[in-house]
Write a structure and sequence with these properties.
Blueprint (H helix, E strand, L loop, with lengths): L4 E5 L3 H13 L3 E6 L2 H11 L3 E5 L8 H12 L2 E6 L4 H8 L6 E3 L4 H54 L5 H35 L4 H6 L3 E2 L2 H12 L7 E4 L5 E4 H17 L7 E4 L2 E2 L2 E9 L29 H13 L2 E7 L2 E9 L9
Parallel strand pairs: 1-2, 1-3, 3-4, 4-5, 7-9
Antiparallel strand pairs: 6-8, 9-11, 10-11, 11-13, 12-13
Helix pairs in contact: 2-3, 5-6, 6-10, 8-9, 9-10
Length: about 375
């Protein structure tokens, strides 16, 4: 395995040399020691570091925070900041740059090596996740788009070329099919955009700070009732509710989407005319959401959160079998540090979601 390449950007040469020595003794390759921000921008394309140890206050007109923004935007390079007694405003600026942490001077070798190891491994996982997302988009999105677009274009062409020979009822049928295809296209693209946003958020080192600024879930029972009304508008299925309010440290957008995916699948893949039960029983240090429905088949061992297009039990397929529902559910739970479990004793399926009452997101200023 090749050595990890590290670039040091530090204007105090003695400190930089000590850092370089510690890294080399730990079997890292130090590809350079720089003091100016413009030098970093000029030399990074050639040096190709896996990680940049970057002092916030460096020489020249470009400070370390601006350099970090450049590295993230153009090279997706991992950054760990080096800092002494920076003011709070500077620290807040630095938090927005997707860095993988701070090393406060003076620091010990063990602190340095731990920060470097964690940053490199976390960055590598994030890059792998993004690469998986790119592959999914490349392979799956064109198929879904083309299916709906071909239907819209084909039916439109028939109406245009055969308009004067078509009966009004036939035209209405074609136009209805066009609308249905457009709705399918809209449904899929909106869902895929949301999935993509979750995947990208999982790759952001500052995701907890970002989530802390989102609207919290103050009244989960109201959110659940709203989802039921919207999802059940056409089917008019019976819902049995035993839900209570409890303020959650989870963004309302994520909680609502999580409930919607679970309710939609309970509606779509349960035995017709059977009731669906939603309860929020007391949980130990958690908010527990339990959804029960009746289904003819459920293969527990087939479930996976490995990607967007998991071919699992139909319960977690979207309208057209892409598997996005499962991908969205697992990614939301990963973001909010929640869990999901399934109990199936035919024909009853019980889906149990546990959400933390004290998420790290709300513990951040």
């Amino acid at each position: 395995m090749s050595k990890r390449r590290i670039l040091i950007v530090e204007d105090e040469r003695l400190i930089a040399r000590d850092i370089a020595l510690s890294l080399e003794e730990a079997n890292y390759e130090v590809v350079g020691i720089l003091s100016y921000g413009n030098e970093v921008i000029e030399k990074v394309p050639k040096l190709k570091p896996d990680l940049v140890l970057l002092d916030i206050h460096i020489l020249g007109p470009i400070d370390g925070i601006q350099v970090a923004e450049y590295l993230h935007k153009y090279w997706q390079t991992a950054v760990v900041f080096l800092t002494a007694n920076s003011d709070q405003e500077t620290i807040e600026r630095a938090k927005k740059t997707f860095s993988y942490g701070f090393l406060i001077k003076p620091f010990q070798d063990r602190q340095l090596l731990t920060a470097v190891e964690v940053a490199i491994e976390t960055h590598q996982r994030n890059q792998e996740r993004l690469e998986s997302l790119r592959r999914n988009i490349t392979t799956a999105l064109p198929h879904e788009l083309n299916t709906a677009l071909n239907s819209i274009l084909g039916l439109s062409e028939i109406i245009i070329s055969e308009f004067y020979s078509l009966a009004p009822a036939e035209i209405l049928e074609f136009v209805t099919d066009i609308r249905n295809s457009a709705q399918r296209l809209h449904f899929f693209t909106q869902r895929y955009l949301f999935f993509t946003q979750l995947e990208l958020l999982l790759s952001r080192p500052d995701r907890l700070q970002f989530m802390a600024k989102m609207e919290p879930t103050l009244h989960p029972s109201e959110a659940i009732k709203t989802v039921i009304v919207e999802s059940n508008r056409e089917l008019q299925r019976e819902f049995i509710l035993d839900i209570a309010d409890q303020e959650l440290a989870i963004p309302l957008e994520f909680f609502t989407k999580l409930v919607k995916e679970l309710v939609d699948n309970a509606l779509r893949y349960s035995i017709p005319q059977t009731p669906i039960t939603i309860a929020t029983p007391p949980g130990e240090n958690c908010y527990c959401l339990v959804i029960k429905n009746e289904t003819e088949k459920f293969e527990l061992e087939s479930l996976s959160d490995s990607g967007a297009y998991v071919k699992s039990s139909p319960m977690f397929h979207d309208y057209h079998g892409s598997g996005l529902g499962l991908g969205i559910v697992y990614r939301i739970l990963r973001l909010v540090e929640g869990s999901i479990n399934f109990n199936f004793v035919a024909p009853h399926l019980e889906t149990i979601v546990k959400l933390p009452l004290n998420s790290h997101a709300l513990q951040l200023d």
